[in-house]
Design a protein that fits this description.
alpha/beta; about 15% strand; elongated
Length: about 425
């Protein structure tokens, strides 16, 4: 039976959420779990989890002392506390199988509250957010998860034809997702599960990734998850590692480290590389696209970098060549992470190309800089000194050469064996 959870601030938008509930049921859902995350108690027979009951979820999980005084606390304090309670409530109801999809609607406050709870749910579980900020920068709300964001066009205040159409579409979508989820077979498949391998990729490392993917999947025993190394891609891959959704990782494209250290647009943050190292799964690392830092259109490049070697990748992306000093910082970062977080160093292999870490840094290309590459490799070598059991494989060919791709696949298979 398809059941949809609706999470909302019912003290300010009760009528709108009751209408959404009606639309979800009309679209095919058999039941609705309506959760009140508003700041004040609301009475309505349709409510499944009241404001008071939501707060009890927080109190039962050690947040009683953090509970603000709802009469005089700031709006931000109250929303933050209710978001914590909602996260716990939604996670526990999901673990009990109480619903098959979740939907919410709101402005900035409601979106922040609801998406925090949604991010606590597994990737692959249906999540829909109708939001007044759904067409702007949604990264703070979605993060590295798979929340479906729907722009509400108009504010969620009162009812009109436009909001009715947006809500109908969203209700139909979430009801369909819930129905599909509820009819999935609960028994495990008799087929042997495939090995799940994550690979990081950038446009300038695509040829190598394509060759690796072709080799890994040719016998049908492996499925490959390719992650675009845009910051969110690296975070998404590491989230899947942490939740046991990947069995091995080929971190071919570690360019997000360069953006983190030099202030580029595609940083995955300071914890990059840690998840797979701590998980102790087979982990092959390289330095794809560590020759560059990513910015937007050329005019957005920071003033301090204006005179550097720049490459227009496309009208919206400008690449900056890393210097030897910056390359040393990248290598130091990689060495420090491996020496600090490697749970099983024997399952970690580092493969370094000999002539170019991207399409545009091989001999004769725009970003070719042998001195910078040497600085990168020398810094990384420190990891081998700190971890004698760590194998660093040096190759003579460019990263995008077929021989390099074959070495990566062979190295991963050897770890597995």
């Amino acid at each position: 039976m398809a059941t949809v959870a609706i999470l909302g601030t019912l003290d300010t938008k009760l009528a709108e959420f009751l209408k959404l509930r009606e639309l979800v049921l009309s679209a095919g859902a058999k039941d609705v779990v309506l959760i009140d995350a508003g700041r004040e108690e609301v009475q309505a027979p349709e409510i499944t989890v009241t404001h008071s009951e939501l707060v009890e979820y927080g109190e039962a999980n050690g947040f009683a002392e953090q509970k603000p005084n709802f009469q005089n606390a700031s709006r931000g304090e109250i929303v933050d506390y209710l978001a914590q309670c909602a996260e716990i409530c939604v996670r526990e109801l999901h673990q009990k199988g109480a619903f098959h999809a979740i939907i919410s609607a709101g402005g900035t406050g409601g979106t922040s509250l609801a998406t925090r709870a949604m991010r606590a749910l597994p990737i692959g579980f249906p999540k829909v957010m109708v939001s007044t900020v759904g067409s702007g920068d949604i990264s703070p709300f979605v993060g590295e998860t798979d929340i479906f964001m729907v722009y509400s066009i108009v504010d969620i205040a009162g009812w009109n034809g436009m909001l009715d159409q947006v809500f109908r579409n969203a209700a139909s979508a979430v009801a369909g997702m819930a129905t599909a989820r509820s009819t999935e077979p609960s028994k495990p498949s008799k087929h042997r599960p495939k090995r799940r391998v994550g690979i990081t990729m950038f446009g300038v490392t695509t040829p190598c990734v394509d060759m690796i993917r072709e080799q890994l999947t040719k016998d049908g025993s492996t499925e490959v998850y390719v992650f675009h190394a845009t910051g969110h891609g690296g975070k998404a891959m590491e989230r899947l590692v942490e939740t046991g959704k990947l069995d091995a990782v080929i971190d071919l494209t570690t360019t997000e480290i360069a953006d983190h250290l030099m202030g580029g647009n595609m940083s995955a943050g300071p914890h990059r590389l840690e998840a797979a190292l701590e998980a102790g799964i087979p982990y092959v690392i390289s330095v794809g696209a560590c020759d560059m830092v990513n910015f937007g259109a050329k005019e957005t490049v920071p003033e301090k970098y204006k005179e550097r070697k720049l490459y227009i990748h496309n009208p919206a992306v400008t690449l900056m060549r890393t210097t030897p000093a910056e390359s040393t910082k990248i290598g130091d970062f990689i060495a420090e992470k491996m020496s600090t977080f490697a749970k099983n160093p024997r399952k970690v292999k580092l493969i370094l190309p000999g002539d170019g870490v991207s399409i545009i840094s091989s001999t004769g290309q725009a970003f070719h800089n042998a001195e910078a590459d040497k600085a990168l490799f020398d810094a990384i070598a420190k990891a081998g000194e700190l971890l004698p059991s760590l194998e660093i494989i040096r190759r003579s060919e460019p990263l995008n050469d077929r021989s390099f791709a074959e070495t990566v696949v062979r190295t991963l298979d050897n770890i597995r064996a």
